[in-house]
């Protein structure tokens, strides 16, 4: 367990480009925890001002906060330009990254003699590597994983239990895939012939670039022709579906239940909130943010923030949501006005 004084932690923040300084006692911390659960010897953080009350009541030894948030003067705080980034650095320094088992090349793993394995592997019992698989150095393959014929993994990849990599799929360096996810399965490719569906062989591949992390139970189709590609640095939550031939740019963030239909194109640094969806053959520009349950059914310009179904400007959708509960009363008012207008016309007609 690592222990650091707050001044040392501040120094580490500054080395990582975060402006930070200590206020109060220079205490020693050994762990990071939530405001509600933290105790003596732990540090917490506050990035949203609405949780100030929780920060004043915490039992943490210190709290990471930004400028402009007032906390009791007897508390030890680290003033940080970005508390959320600061707590990420603190977790890495105090807790470190997950440690993986060192299986080596376990004798109970099913490894085809034609597979090429890099230096310092950790391949668990129950993993299966087919012919012509190529795996880089220091890869970790957990039990139940299957890597199909001709698939390629770069260096420092981690496949958690029961991940399936279909034949000829390509993973770059430092790719992490969590349990139950599948890369390179057949896409939804069927031709309608005489009211029947005829399968179109999926002869393309799926490509995952460097530094991608894929959550649990995700599915990334291989392309019918060409490739499905996930750009470098992109991060997926759980239960993400990427259709055949879709392209996702670098450094995107997809929250749980996001779906991208076949042949859609998503630019770089796009954020799709939970249950957002993109329909087929649609283009989403760079730096787009889509809110929860947004349905993107037409092209979206770069830099847009959209919400709703179909997607539109977020500000317009918020006004729509606010207006929706008022619609029944507004409808009643319209009907009353129509009735009053009709009665007025009838009286006018009677006087003529």
CA-to-CA gap between the ends?
Answer: 95 Å
State the name of the first-level CATH class of the largest domain: Mainly Beta
Q: State the CATH topology of the largest domain.
A: UDP N-Acetylglucosamine Acyltransferase, domain 1
| Shape assignment | flat
Report what the structure shows.
The protein has 352 residues and is an alpha/beta fold. It has 2 domains: 4-94, Udp-n-acetylmuramoylalanyl-d-glutamate--2,6- Diaminopimelate Ligase, Chain: A, domain 1, CATH 3.40.1390.10; 110-315, Hexapeptide repeat proteins (UDP N-Acetylglucosamine Acyltransferase, domain 1), CATH 2.160.10.10. The protein contains 5 helices and 39 strands. It has a 10-stranded parallel β-sheet with strand order 8-11-14-17-20-25-28-31-34-37, with no helix packed on it. The protein has a 9-stranded parallel β-sheet with strand order 9-12-15-18-23-26-29-32-35, with no helix packed on it. It is flat, with a radius of gyration of 27 Å. The N and C termini lie far apart (95 Å).
């Amino acid at each position: 367990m690592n222990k650091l004084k707050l001044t040392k932690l501040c120094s580490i923040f500054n080395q990582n480009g975060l402006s930070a300084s200590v206020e109060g006692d220079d205490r020693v911390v050994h762990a990071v925890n939530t405001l509600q659960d933290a105790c003596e010897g732990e540090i917490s953080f506050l990035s949203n001002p609405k949780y100030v009350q929780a920060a004043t009541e915490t039992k943490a030894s210190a709290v990471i906060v930004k400028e402009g948030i007032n906390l009791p003067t007897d508390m030890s705080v680290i003033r940080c330009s970005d508390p959320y980034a600061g707590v990420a650095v603190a977790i890495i320094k105090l807790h470190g990254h997950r440690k993986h088992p060192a299986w080596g090349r376990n004798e109970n793993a099913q490894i085809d003699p034609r597979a090429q394995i890099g230096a310092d592997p950790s391949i668990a019992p129950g993993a299966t590597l087919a012919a012509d698989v190529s795996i880089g150095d220091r890869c970790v393959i957990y039990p139940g994983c299957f890597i199909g014929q001709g698939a390629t993994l770069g260096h420092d990849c981690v496949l958690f239990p029961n991940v399936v990599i279909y034949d000829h799929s390509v993973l770059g360096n430092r790719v992490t895939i969590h349990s139950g996810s599948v890369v390179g399965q057949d896409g939804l490719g069927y031709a309608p012939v005489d009211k029947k569906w005829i399968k179109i062989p999926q002869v393309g591949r799926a490509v995952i670039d460097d530094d991608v992390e894929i959550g649990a139970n995700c599915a990334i189709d291989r392309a019918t022709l060409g490739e499905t590609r996930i750009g470098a640095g992109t991060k997926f939550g759980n239960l993400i579906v990427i259709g055949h031939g879709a392209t996702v740019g670098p450094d995107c963030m997809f929250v749980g239940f996001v779906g991208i239909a076949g042949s859609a194109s998503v630019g770089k640094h796009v954020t799709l909130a939970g249950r957002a969806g993109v329909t087929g053959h649609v283009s989403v520009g760079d730096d787009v943010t889509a809110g929860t349950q947004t349905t993107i059914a037409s092209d979206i310009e770069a830099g847009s923030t959209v919400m709703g179904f179909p997607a539109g400007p977020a500000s317009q959708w918020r006004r729509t949501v606010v207006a929706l509960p008022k619609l029944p009363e507004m409808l009643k008012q319209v009907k009353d006005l129509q009735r009053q207008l009709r009665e007025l016309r009838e009286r006018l007609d009677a006087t003529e």
